[in-house]
Design a protein that fits this description.
The structure holds two protein chains of two kinds.
Chain A (H helix, E strand, L loop, with lengths): L1 H4 L3 H23 L2 H17 L10 H20 L15 H7 L10 H10 L2 H7 L3 H11 L5 H8 L3 H23 L1
Helix pairs in contact in A: 2-3, 2-4, 3-4, 4-9, 7-10, 8-10, 9-10
Chain B lengths: L9 H8 L5 H9 L1 H18 L10 H6 L4 E2 L5 E2 L1
Antiparallel strand pairs in B: 1-2
The chains are: A mainly alpha, B mainly alpha.
Chain lengths: 185, 80
């Protein structure tokens, strides 16, 4: 970090190399679109590296970068209102008809190679269940269980009260259990 | 002293699923089918979550980022 703050190209590259997968994975699971996730990841790293002099070492670097990445995803979802879309239909759809009416119709167009990759990567039951969570639940549960963050670290990263983080994670896991059980029934 | 008959809290169930629940509280699971069912369900979800892979961006991602980063020079100037 110290080398990066002094502006060493190799140190910048090392930071990108170290964090590109976790940051890209978080964004990809948030927006469920590879190309878009990559654009947002690029935007995140550019913002972080161009603003490296404002980084305060009392915070974890990874928390800082995840905070910027998560903000980018949430901003995007708000702008595009994509949080109501998922392969399984809107989260508030309660009947099979409602789910069909609000679901993405993958069969309506020819599937591109990128679509195939996305379907393979994000098509499992657990990935589809995650996509049905509210975005704020999604970021909390991903930071907790994919990145291994503590509740306190998530609260710092997302600037949320600790109690809110706990509530989001518990609700998210309950919802995931429900979605996964529906699939098995 | 915690009452052995007290049901596990959500936090305790998470600790149990990670193998971190103190043995004294874990004993409760042996006698409480309600908590055992709840804990098993929770563990399954947590295991699925922690097994999720990281994905990689496409090749050349770092180069594309670095092409747009301003690198400060020793004099404090910035170069693209």
């Amino acid at each position: 970090m110290a080398w990066a703050k002094q502006g060493h190209d190799a140190a910048f590259r090392e930071l990108v190399r170290r964090y590109e997968r976790p940051v890209f994975s978080l964004l990809y699971r948030m927006v469920r679109d590879r190309a878009l996730a990559e654009d947002l990841a690029q935007e995140t790293f550019i913002k972080v590296l161009n603003g490296i002099k404002s980084y305060r070492p009392e915070f974890k670097f990874s928390s800082w970068i995840f905070k910027i990445a998560n903000n980018a995803a949430i901003d995007h979802l708000r702008r595009k209102n994509l949080d109501t879309l998922s392969l399984d239909g809107a989260p508030n759809a309660e009947t099979p008809d409602q789910m069909r009416a609000t679901s993405l119709q993958l069969g309506d167009r020819a599937e591109s190679p990128l679509d195939e990759v996305e379907n393979r990567e994000l098509g499992t039951a657990i990935e589809r269940a995650i996509s049905r969570l509210r975005p704020e639940y999604r970021s909390c549960i991903l930071l907790r269980h994919v990145e291994g963050y503590s509740y306190e670290e998530i609260a710092d990263t997302l600037e949320l009260p600790l109690g809110t983080v706990k509530t989001y994670i518990h609700r998210a896991r309950n919802e995931l259990r429900g979605y996964l059980n529906d699939r098995r029934d | 002293m915690t009452d052995l008959s007290m049901h596990l809290t959500t936090d305790e169930i998470e600790l149990w699923a990670q193998g971190l629940l103190p043995a004294a509280r874990a004993l409760h699971l042996a006698d409480c089918s309600l908590c055992r069912v709840e804990a098993d369900r929770e563990r399954k979800v947590i295991l699925e979550l922690v097994s999720l892979p990281h994905f990689a961006p496409t090749a050349g991602f770092a180069d594309r980022v670095m092409a747009q980063v301003k690198i400060p020079t020793a004099s404090g100037d910035w170069t693209a």
